[in-house]
Design brief:
By secondary structure, the protein is of the alpha+beta class. It has one domain: 3-Layer(aba) Sandwich (Protocatechuate 4,5-dioxygenase, Chain B), CATH 3.40.830. It contains 6 helices and 2 strands, in the order H-H-H-H-H-H-E-E. The chain has a two-stranded antiparallel sheet. Helix 2 packs parallel to helix 6. The radius of gyration is 17 Å and the shape is globular. The chain starts with 7 loop residues before the first helix and ends in a 30-residue tail after the last strand. InterPro entries: Xdiol_dOase_suB. One of its GO terms (molecular function) is oxidoreductase activity, acting on single donors with incorporation of molecular oxygen, incorporation of two atoms of oxygen. This is Extradiol ring-cleavage dioxygenase class III enzyme subunit B domain-containing protein.
């Protein structure tokens, strides 16, 4: 097979959210080898395109929380989070989502990766893309609809809605996408 494989998670989510394809939709798959700068630039491009066209959009991200899965078949009734450490980190992530702290979660992506993500996955990139696309701030109302194990990994359904009633901006330690210099010289900064 030549080309990029279909992202099963996105296709399944889209068929559940939009079964009759009545709503225009676009699927963007994450490049597992991209770093923060590449992911942020892609999210910012989506945000800019929507703004230029005067459109509003719903952002749906399909990703696991912790990413350690059982290597042997298990009966679904015996499913559980792979380890208590993964469960604790999943709950911490969900606490940030519940509090609407998307940008804070984006800033913690590398720490999260070091604790609960398998090494083939380059950081917890979904939050980078979400923050760049939705807005790099913490001004969201968050709702955690569900949290369950998925063959050892953590899965949740959450909702973030823009809000004036939130925890507000905290400390940001990385560049804003409006003036982003990039990691690993992805965007040439010149001779600074």
């Amino acid at each position: 097979m030549i080309g990029f494989p279909i992202d099963t998670g996105s296709v399944v989510a889209l068929s559940l959210l939009n079964p009759d394809n009545k709503i225009p939709a676009c699927i963007v798959s994450s490049n597992m080898y991209s770093n923060r700068s590449e992911t942020m630039v892609l999210g910012k491009a989506a945000r800019d395109a929507l703004s230029k066209q005067g459109k509003k959009a719903v952002v749906v991200v399909v990703a696991s929380l912790s990413n350690r899965m059982f290597t042997e078949h298990i009966d679904p009734k015996d499913d559980k989070i792979h380890s208590s450490k993964d469960d604790e980190w999943n709950k911490k992530i969900l606490e940030f989502f519940h509090d609407g702290r998307l940008e804070d979660l984006s800033q913690l992506s590398r720490d999260i990766h070091g604790q609960i993500r398998i090494q083939k996955v380059a950081a917890y990139k979904p939050v980078w893309w979400m923050a760049a696309t939705m807005g790099q701030h913490n001004n969201y109302k968050g709702e955690v609809q569900s949290y369950e194990p998925l063959h050892g990994s953590g899965g949740a359904v959450i909702q973030l809605t823009p809000s004036d009633e939130s925890v507000g901006d905290k400390e940001f330690d990385e560049d804003d996408v409006e003036y982003y210099h990039g990691d690993r010289n992805v965007l040439d900064r010149g001779n600074l």
